[in-house]
Design brief:
503 residues; alpha/beta; Nitrilase/N-carbamoyl-D-aminoacid amidohydrolase; 2 domains; six-stranded mixed β-sheet; 12 helices
Length: 503
């Protein structure tokens, strides 16, 4: 039985399953080279209404498989966790409709649906990255991190270039399934893949050849603490003692910088003398700066403002603060609560924070860096803004333990690898329970501490010392969007002229 002869709902489910499992922590990203072929059969050969319905079925299936871990959040009730998962799945499905309906409509009107498909997908991923509900986490690029040569173009094209390539492969495999001479399309797909892999391998070697291990050493602490127990009063002394002992071990390694995870201690470190001073004195005594994730509070004429932040303890006794810029909707703040303050009374997640305002650049020794807190690291745009302000490396503080040892933690770590490649800088990641790591500018993992482990990572950071230009990935995405629009306008004008000529 040929693929085209399967019922539409079966085709939708096939695409959804194949797409979804590529986000699991297994090297299955190659499945996305043809996961959208069943949907292309629908989009290019069925009416718009059917395309919309089947697209949504596929999207719900794919996003449920890929992000089911959202519903495992132990920081809230089962009802709220399940509602969060359902809301995310149905919300993300709406973006797939842009592609499904768009391809189907263009195919019916202009007969170039297959040609426009890659550009529509890039457009969809670009639009999905904006706003308070932005979710670039589900970009196709993440599924290719398992094979580093396939993501090496990200420093020029961003994730959009990787998505465009995958969509073109899907188009070639669609033609192989539907045309009478499939061999040439299959060969074309393998040749294209080989070119990208070969170019990526060359760029990977070039970056690693032009990278050199510096004399700048970092120590990363992973305490392996249950995220719920962390906030229990009875556990406070135990946690403080644990972080103190791990920090002593780390500082004895004589690093240039120590990194703690997100909200490392259940205290306002900047304003709490009891918890702040032992850390500050330890930093002064050892002459080693330390960045700690912490909650923070400020007061003004409008009342108190609470932040998820990070505090840098400098060796001269001074301190610098960063407040998280992009908060997780419904988990860290309630959307529209700035306009309707009464919404802040809702307690759906584990906090109701205010947004930070500044891309703070920290300095340790002769190095400058930007720090991203948890979900922020899924946004290429945020990492890029830190780089534009002079960061030489990036740090990530996170707590991925809320959903346990689930795919979310592994996906999040893969996003850190993409940020390293896009900006060609080392990335240092400290997670409360995993996964912590030190990542080279090539995206290669130099050191890693798995989920559920406790310990310290210690390594010298490698930097790219020769000139290596990177490009804002948004530029490539915008170029694709304009090319797609150009094709539509060209075909529309051509079709209109043909119709006029027939009269």
């Amino acid at each position: 039985m040929k693929l085209q002869q399967f019922p539409d709902w079966v085709l939708a489910l096939i695409s959804g399953v194949l797409f979804g499992i590529t986000f699991l922590p297994f090297p299955l990203g190659f499945l996305n080279y043809f996961s959208l072929v069943p949907l292309l059969i629908i989009w290019l050969n069925r009416d718009i209404k059917t395309s919309a319905a089947m697209t949504y079925i596929a999207a719900i299936t794919a996003n449920t498989i890929a992000f089911y871990w959202i519903g495992l959040n132990k920081g809230t009730s089962m009802l709220i966790a399940f509602t969060s998962l359902a809301g995310a799945v149905f919300y993300l499905g709406l973006f797939w409709l842009i592609v499904g309906v768009g391809v189907s409509f263009i195919q019916k009107k202009l007969r170039v649906g297959l040609l426009l498909f890659p550009f529509l997908w890039v457009t969809m991923e670009y639009l999905r990255s904006f706003g308070p509900m932005g979710f670039p986490w589900s970009d196709l690029a993440l599924t290719q991190v398992f094979l580093l040569p396939m993501v090496q173009t990200a420093d020029v094209t961003g994730s959009a270039g990787i998505a465009l390539f995958i969509c073109i492969l899907n188009g070639l495999f669609y033609l192989a399934v539907t045309e009478k001479e499939p061999k040439k399309y299959i060969i074309g797909a393998f040749v294209l893949w080989g070119i990208v892999f070969g170019m990526g391998s060359w760029r990977l070697r070039a970056i690693e050849k032009n990278s050199a291990e510096s004399q700048f050493y970092v120590a990363v602490i992973q305490p392996n603490v249950d995220p719920v127990q962390k906030w229990e009063k009875s556990y406070k002394k135990t946690l403080v003692a644990l972080m103190d002992s791990l920090t002593d071990v780390a500082m004895n390694m004589k690093p240039d910088f120590v990194l703690w995870p997100e909200a490392a201690l259940p205290a306002y470190l900047r304003i709490s003398y009891r918890y702040r001073e032992p850390i500050r004195q330890k930093v002064i005594k050892n002459g080693i700066p330390l960045l700690a994730g912490t909650i923070d509070m400020e007061s003004d004429e409008n009342g108190r403002h609470y932040y998820n932040g990070a505090i840098l303890f400098n060796t001269d006794g001074s301190m610098d603060m960063y407040h998280k810029l992009f908060l997780v909707p419904f988990a860290e703040y309630i959307p529209l609560s700035g306009i309707f303050p009464s919404l802040k009374k809702l307690n759906i997640g584990w906090g109701n924070f205010d947004h930070g305002n500044d891309y703070t650049i920290f300095k340790v020794g002769d190095k400058r860096f930007g720090n991203m807190i948890c979900y922020e690291s899924s946004f290429p745009r945020i990492a890029r803004r830190f780089m534009e302000r002079g960061a030489e490396f990036l740090t990530i503080e996170t707590n991925d333990a809320w959903s346990g040892d689930a795919p979310g933690a592994y996906q999040h770590f893969g996003l850190a690898q993409l940020r390293a490649v896009e900006n060609r800088v080392p990335v240092v990641r400290s997670a409360n329970t995993g996964i912590s790591g030190i990542i080279a500018p090539s995206g290669r993992v130099l050191q890693k501490m798995e989920f559920g482990e406790q310990g310290i990572l210690f390594a010298a950071l490698p930097f790219v010392y020769s000139d290596w230009d990177t490009v804002d990935g948004d530029l490539f995405a915008l170029m694709c969007i304009f090319i797609g629009l150009g094709i539509v306008i060209w075909e529309w004008v051509k079709t209109r002229k043909m119709r006029i000529g027939k009269r």
